[in-house]
Amino acid sequence: MSAQWKPGPLGNREPFSAYICDEGALDALRPVVIEMGWQPEKCNKGGLRNAIQSLSIAASPAILMVDLSESGDPLNDINALAEVCEPGTVVIAVGQVNDVRLYRDLVASGIHDYLLKPLSANQVRDALTQAQAVFSAPRSSEGEAEHEHVATAVVGTRGGVGASTIATSLAWLFSIEHERSTALLDLDVHFGTGALSLDLEPGRGLTDAIDNPSRIDGLFIERAMIRANDNLAIMSAEAPINAPVMTDGTAFLQLEEEFRQAFDMTVIDLPRNMLINFPHLLAEVNVVTLVTELTLASARDTIRLLSWLKTNAPNTHPMIVCNKMQSGAAEISKADFEASIEQKINYQINLDQKAASNAAKLGQTFIEANKASRTVNPLRDIAKTIVGVSEDDGASLQQPAKQGSMLGKFDIKSLLSGSSKKSKAPAAAVEAAE
Question: What GO cellular component is one of the record's annotations (predicted)?
Answer without folding.
Answer: cytosol
